[in-house]
Fold:
Amino acid sequence: MSQRLSALGVLESLKLGVVPDEAMGALSVGCEDLLAAVDDDLSAAGAEQPGGAFRIFFGDYGTGKSHLLELAEERARSRGFLVARTAFGSREVSPDSPLAVYRALIAALRYPSGPQRGLDRLLSEAGESPEVFRRWTGRVSVGGPIVDEEFTNHLWLSPAILGHRLLMKTGLDEGHERLRAWMGGQPSPPPALRRILGVAAARIGLPRGHGLTGPEQIRGIPRWRSVPQIPCYILGGIGSLARDLGYSGLALLLDEGEYFQWMTSQRTEYAVNLAKGLQATSLSGYPADTLPRGGRRNHRLVPYRFQQAQHVACFVALAPQSESGEALAALAAVEESRRSQIPALTSHQLIDLATRVLELATMADLDSLHLPAYRDLLFQHIDHECRAGRPLPPRRVVKLAAFLPDTVRAAGEAPVDPQLFMSGG
Structure:
């Protein structure tokens, strides 16, 4: 693709409020200290004896919270982490629904390289590594030694690894779909999956009672809002499995959507419990045993953490004036060192940001005779708002700059209106 077409594509994305991957670095202004904190957190999560990492970024709407999480995601991938990023919403990804959040994270799971998403690649790599396979399935599979007496199989991932390998050997495509749906948190009746795995086991000569056809191995993931411990337990296991396979760990990134709502005090309590559970998943020193565990008796036996240290980093972006109320207060109760405020950009930084966007217009051959006058007017507006104590959000500045060539073209030969931006244009 030519430089001109590439620049045009980026400008069109910016008009829609989306920063493409190729422009991520060039349009990052004033976030050096925040990214340094991200780097420190990733180092802590990826250490041999990790203390873990959990950080909240506070920022008003339009100040760059989502952009910061995108930068953190790319940094994590470049350092060998699996990453999963989603945004809270009032329906599909309600923060008071642990299963909904888990589903969104698993669907978004990405690897340091390659286009694959989801758990398939991780389960496949675990099945292809003799050492990892034996370690993670030693107490589930038949035959083969237990290579680590101190290692306890994961209640969901261990049978998933064994099941995935059985299905690969037998080519039962229906089983792959069922397994993917089960581990992805989608409605997949475990009895149907047990039946398919029983057929697969019989095809390769495994004896009855091999462990994958009983309810003690293929467990459902409950929908109940009162059971955050199971999604947290599985996510922690993914971090541990990723580490065993040579990755750095798992980075979770949760963004507060603009339609984030809290319906009742009960739902707020569920969201608080999930937030605390994610802290327990990420921080080895967090007192996970003090957290509530709901559901039936067998659900309540599942801990929040699979292992004490799980190589997980979690980054959450929230608006300080959101409607989250009690939940926000609960999240803010973490250590001061784990909270970061996204600062308002200075006039100089905002003008720098607008200049970078307008450089794309030059690359796209959208310069015109009158563009410099409109550019200067935009810069004056940015400076005026900053001096008045009303700094424009970076998102607004980017959109104004991205639309500026269109504004000039629409004005034609008409005189430049000095009140254009002052009046909200």
In short: The radius of gyration is 25 Å. Strands lie at 53-58, 81-88, 249-256, 312-318, 339-341.
